[in-house]
Specification:
This protein starts with a helix and ends in a 5-residue tail after the last helix. The chain is mainly alpha-helical. The protein has three helices and no strands. It is 65% helix and 0% strand. This is XkdX family protein.
Length: 57
């Protein structure tokens, strides 16, 4: 994962953990289209979904 992808994932996690967004809201709240390619954003999305939507936390 490159630095831009890590930044995008960190922003999603911040939305989810500290601002009270649901995982779905965190996933769609921020626009990364100007920073990441479709493939890069897809990878970030998969990591976030795996960590927060399908975890047993």
């Amino acid at each position: 994962m490159n630095d831009q992808q890590k930044e995008a994932l960190a922003q999603m996690e911040t939305q989810f953990r500290t601002l009270g967004a649901t995982p779905i809201q965190a996933l769609y709240k921020l626009d990364y289209s100007d920073k990441l390619s479709k493939e890069e954003f897809e990878m970030v999305t998969k990591v976030f979904v795996r960590n927060y939507l399908f975890s047993e936390k």
